[in-house]
Write a structure and sequence with these properties.
By secondary structure, the chain is of the alpha+beta class. Helices cover 27% and strands 27% of the residues. The radius of gyration is 25 Å and the shape is elongated.
Length: 186
Amino acid sequence: MRTSKVGIWTEQGFTLIELIIALFVGVLLVSIIAAYGYVQGVHGLQGASRSLIGMVRTAYTLAVASRHVQNLCVEIAHGEVWITRQACSEKVEGEKAGQAEAPHITLSTGIRVLDVQTADQGTVSQGVGTILFFPLGRAERGVIHLEDQFHNQISLLIQPVTGMVTVQDGYTNGNVVSSGFSDGMQ
């Protein structure tokens, strides 16, 4: 509202320029907040993917070094990931008393595991998904799908021959994973 020269309120309202400036400031603030949230979400997914890649490398190395099959266990509901020689349903903090604690991480707040896909288990979207790592330097073909609070998704594809992880934006189906060889047939 505006006032007249004598200080009395009038019913004329805001000028068009005042409304445009207020609208511009509002849009600017909303865009800055949205951009900050997007960057935070991407950073959270990148950090979670780095942690999972580290766990995959650890499982691969432990399998080769110990000459025992290692299970990479991914608990869907709480985002917990650990490595063990036992079945993943038997969550253990250490293999046996006196031994080092089994590698274990919990994904950061706002990041959730959508599912784990393997050839053996299919798509696991509840409970615990398991990806196997073998002593001869091979891994079970698997995909771990992650999502942040902004619904950005990434897929971590575990290559069976090398145990390496490929990160792709979005939700990539597990049967897209390939060894990188082509037979030339269409």
